[in-house]
């Protein structure tokens, strides 16, 4: 059972790394678009890709990776907030920043008002580096787990 979770964790880690690379790429392509008044359709498409990639990475990290790590480490099943506070205790990130990331992800998933999108793009630009900074810490932790349970 634990070996199956380790294998799943390996797969999810590969997805996480790919999603982080995609977000990094989108950030590079969009850094000069944030705050612009006039956005062309092509630029809008880039910004929408950025927000989508942010939301995907946030989901992978908080919903899947954090939960799977808890499962492997035999932590009790818990809420998203419990996972966020546990991540802070592990030294991966500040809980209040992870909560902002999660709230922004939810806003992106449910935002349909075009007048709010400039604020969403600015928030994504601010929070993406924080989200990406968590990834190497997770990779190190998961690598240790894989080594521990594969030996």
Explained architecture:
With 151 residues, the protein is an all-alpha fold. It has a single domain (2-150), classed as Four Helix Bundle (Hemerythrin (Met), subunit A). Helix content is 80%, strand content 0%. The chain is built from five helices and no strands. It has helices at residues 2-30, 41-72, 80-89, 95-110, 117-150. The longest helix has 34 residues, at 117-150. It is elongated and about 55 Å long. The mean pLDDT is 91.
Furnish the topology, listing elements before pairings.
Blueprint: H1 2-30, H2 41-72, H3 80-89, H4 95-110, H5 117-150
Helix pairs in contact: 1-2, 1-5, 2-3, 2-4, 2-5, 4-5
- Sheet bearing the most strands, described? none
Percent helix, as a range, is over 70%
Q: What's the gyration radius in Å?
A: 16 Å
CATH superfamily: Nucleotidyltransferases  domain 2
Order of helices and strands: HHHHH
Residue windows where pLDDT falls under 50 for at least 5 positions: none
Quote the distance from N terminus to C terminus. Answer: 15 Å
Strand proportion, as a percent range, falls in under 5%
Our count of domains comes out at 1
Q: Quick one: CATH class? A: Mainly Alpha
CATH architecture: Up-down Bundle
Number of strands: 0
Structural class: mainly alpha
Number of helices: 5
Task: Supply database-style keywords.
mainly alpha, Four Helix Bundle (Hemerythrin (Met), subunit A), 5 helices
In short:
This protein is mainly α and 151 residues long. Helix content is 80%, strand content 0%.
């Amino acid at each position: 059972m634990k070996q199956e979770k380790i294998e799943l964790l390996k797969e999810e880690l590969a997805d996480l790394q790919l999603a982080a690379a995609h977000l990094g790429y989108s950030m590079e392509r969009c850094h000069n678009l944030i705050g612009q008044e006039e956005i062309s359709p092509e630029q809008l498409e880039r910004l929408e890709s950025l927000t989508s990639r942010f939301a995907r990475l946030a989901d992978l990290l908080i919903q899947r990776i954090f939960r799977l790590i808890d499962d492997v480490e035999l932590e009790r099943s818990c809420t998203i907030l419990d996972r966020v506070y546990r991540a802070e205790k592990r030294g991966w990130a500040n809980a209040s920043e992870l909560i902002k990331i999660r709230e922004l992800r939810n806003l992106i998933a449910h935002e349909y008002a075009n007048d709010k999108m400039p604020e969403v793009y600015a928030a994504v630009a601010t929070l993406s580096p924080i989200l990406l900074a968590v990834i190497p810490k997770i990779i190190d932790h998961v690598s240790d787990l894989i080594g521990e349970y594969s030996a």
